[in-house]
Predict the structure.
Amino acid sequence: MHRFAIVAAVALFAFGCVEQSPDTPTEDDIKAAQENILKTAPTPKYVVNADLEDKVTYLGLDVDTDVVTPGKAFTLTHYWKVNKPFTDDWKVFIHLEAPGTKKSHLNADHTPINGHYPVKVWKAGDIIRDIHRVSVPANWPAKSVEIYVGMWKGPLRLKVTKGPHDKENRILAVVLPTTSAAPVELKRIVAKHIKNGSIKLDGKLDERAWKDAPSTGDFVRTIDGLPADQETTAKILWDDKNLYVAFQCEDKDVWSTLDKRDEKLWTQEAVEMFIDADGDGKSYVELQTNPRGAIFDSYLPAYRQNQNDWNSNMKVAVKVDGTLDDRTDTDKGWTVEMAIPLTDARGKLTEDKNVPPKVGSEWRVNFYRLDMPAGRPQQGTGWSPPLVGDFHTLARFGVLAFGNDKGEIPGQPAVATAKPEPQKEAQAAPNVPHRPMLKRPLNLRVRPAAEE
């Protein structure tokens, strides 16, 4: 029940601006931002020169592509000229619209300059260069993408006093054509079958079965697919009763205050698994735990229709390498073991063609992690990045295949686990997680945890 709500089928949900994490830049943040505070005004590829109440001028933007390919991330570089210092907590919004469709937009809101330089510290004379990555879903319903920018605070927006804009005080920065969506190659992992009783649930992962278990490789940022700040991997095993999932999370600051079942774990630090056992893109289950071992579980008969009254029989064990909830020291990380009864994948359904699975069965699944370092925005990473601010993007779920005791499916080639190839996109925007306005941030965007 969370993340930036975005696209279901071809329709898009419309959301307004969403709250962002508290912007309190440190001295290091200000230093990191300096290279993107320019002394002379650039000449952007798309010149706009729109004014917002004489406080700031949106000079325009550069885009690293002439044509947007749905499902593929691209880079926006915005240029702002500050005319007057900001005394209130205004924030930047970025909207991507599908023209001609009803109520369709994606929020790409974020704190400028990789989260280092919020609007409230902008100084008169500053020329801000703000670079971030965005994408539109593979099922984008229009032949172009309209990109709007502006500033907001609560229910208010700064008025556009000069330049191209709409009635909602949004500056029209550029309209880019789209091309046909590139085929999506789904991630795939084959779970190895083990003998019943091989795993002792203690969070240690010291059994031989875990050492040989197939791994997802390193998670990447959910918004843009770029490498994560801290490493996370998941390993998968199964026996005749349970699916076993182990998350290994590098974490210099392990914390969580939530310890009750079905609390909003996604608002702090957590790991998550989504399961669509029959792969129909409709009903699925959502399972989470956090460094305290608290559980959130929900059955969804359809996209985002969470039914939190459903309880799984999942068991978890967590081991923290460090000091839980001490934000003054440096930790190493935390490890999670999940034992998920195979029949839990049905949720409230009495039957499912792939439950219980057998060798060769395939489920659609995804794995995520939410991390919230002290004083920084929440970060969302995952196995198969949705490339929008919505963890519930079922079309981007990977494939979990059930293998034999060698981790193989007879008649099919073995699946090699490889680390994702680093994408060379310097200064990509911070990857804040997901949830829509109604329930969590939306986006391809970037906003801190919202409600589930």
About this structure: The two ends are 4 Å apart (CA to CA). The helical segments are 27-33, 208-211.
